[in-house]
């Protein structure tokens, strides 16, 4: 089951041909995207996702995405969806065809949540840390590296996940050269200690997570303390629980880091998951 709508709001055949072969999103990964979780027809964190799309567009110097058009296009997909209760809604915005009139390409596509992701939500994951190859101090002075933009150039992120999978893990956690914990290839890292949740700051060149944001909002309402601050590997191995947060994985438990078992944290996981879900009750 897949549903595709182009940015002008027209439904299109997801097996059809809609992207020109010279589209810069295709030939250079020159574009941006978001993946939004839709549950029972309701998109989660749509506003923060579109805010982040705009932020990414600014970083890539793309024309400002037409927010109303993306909202309409997302709704067309949601309205046409007849698949499972949960859908991953991917919105894509590229610089458009290289030999075109400069019009960006935009579309939204709904797909089911991958089986692997659903399994990991329940079973938790083993993660390995992987060197991301930059020091956080360069982030502000190297805007061309697009650190913290959700660009279509995710080949490195996908390679990191394949590397993890070939090394007895389901997930990777990127680490900067100074030892700062960054993020997963498609997730944010959240650490729980007592009644405090912590996550690394976007200023390190990572994405501002919409799921992490929702969890922190709910946790604060329930009396937890939340901190956005640098973390190191020792903070992961000494924590009461380590989690990967993303739209499709929700709050997934990390059971092992670099082969070292972490606390089971099943109850903590249940509590944090309930907090996250309470945002949408
Ligand atoms: N970090 C990266 C690199 C991502 O690609 C993603 C999502 O895919 C996230 C973090 C988590 O973001 P969100 O919770 O908004 O899905």
Automatic annotation (TrEMBL):
GO terms for molecular function: lyase activity. One of its GO terms (biological process) is carboxylic acid biosynthetic process. The keyword Lyase applies. Keywords: Lyase. InterPro entries: Aminotrans_IV, Aminotransferase-like, BCAT-like_C, BCAT-like_N, Class-IV_PLP-Dep_Aminotrnsfr. Gene3D superfamilies: 3.30.470.10, D-amino Acid Aminotransferase, subunit A, domain 2. GO terms for cellular component: cytosol. It comes from the Bacteria. Belongs to the class-IV pyridoxal-phosphate-dependent aminotransferase family. This is 4-amino-4-deoxychorismate lyase.
